[in-house]
Amino acid sequence: xxxxxxxxxxxxxxxxxxxxxxxxxxxxxxxxxxxxxxxxxxxxxxxxxxxxxxxxxxxxxxxxxxxxxxxxxxxxxxxxxxxxxxxxxxxxxxxxxxxxxxxxxxxxxxxxxxxxxxxxxxxxxxxxxxxxxxxxxxxxxxxxxxxxxxxxxxxxxxxxxxxxxxxxxxxxxxxxxxxxxxxxxxxxxxxxxxxxxxxxxxxxxxxxxxxxxxxxxxxxxxxxxxxxxxxxxxxxxxxxxxxxxxxxxxxxxxxxxxxxxxxxxxxxxxxxxxxxxxxxxxxxxxxxxxxxxxxx
Length: 296
Description:
Layout: E1 10-15, H1 20-34, E2 39-44, E3 59-64, H2 66-76, E4 83-87, E5 97-98, H3 102-110, E6 115-127, E7 134-138, E8 141-146, E9 153-162, E10 165-174, E11 176-180, H4 188-191, E12 203-209, E13 219-222, E14 227-231, E15 239-243, E16 247-251, E17 256-270, H5 274-283
Parallel strand pairs: 1-2, 1-3, 3-4, 4-5, 4-17
Antiparallel strand pairs: 6-7, 6-17, 8-11, 8-15, 9-10, 9-14, 11-12, 12-13, 14-17, 15-16
């Protein structure tokens, strides 16, 4: 193997243990990388998130679906490690590399030829009177919602118009509020009627869930603007903050959820930008054909 511009010493493999194909793929990658004298560390996404190895890798592999990529991004994006997401099974919106293509794409990345996609991530802080602020980051979305079924909650949304200056954008009586990144625009937000954004845009989607007032519509704001969602002081039913659909935290009346673009972005290695548009066309049936029909 010829010398390449990139020299890596350590790789971290995030594995979805529920997928047998992920375990088989991990062994294939391990053999290849160890043959190149690269240290390989396995980490199961079934383990507690806090248990993942803290010694950051030069590259992370995501072996599973989109959920595995979300897990990996929260773990390694802050340190700037790129994520090599391999699609196993159904075509995902984030996973871009087919398993049969992984080695050629990896070689391209080593030679500085592979496509790299930079994705906005959210930094989320919960400010509670008399409490210690809690922080998370996410790649897809943060959702403030009722903890029960079909219960309206009261939320106030403020957005930053100048450094440190907030102005009220709206008050919502709804099942909740989704704040989604462009990457997350094809997840829960899309199911709730939100717009689809190109994943490399620098923007955030504000999308109320089943609002009581029909004029409460989704909005797209610049990602550079800080936003604050405040739970109503008179809120009686339970309220949850859900991060990337994987982490939950109970909120209390008066809690302030502060959201802003993280100072880093997720680095996703991909084989071809067309994979994202193929996923859109396939999953959303934009091809114009239906079961039982031929090509239009």
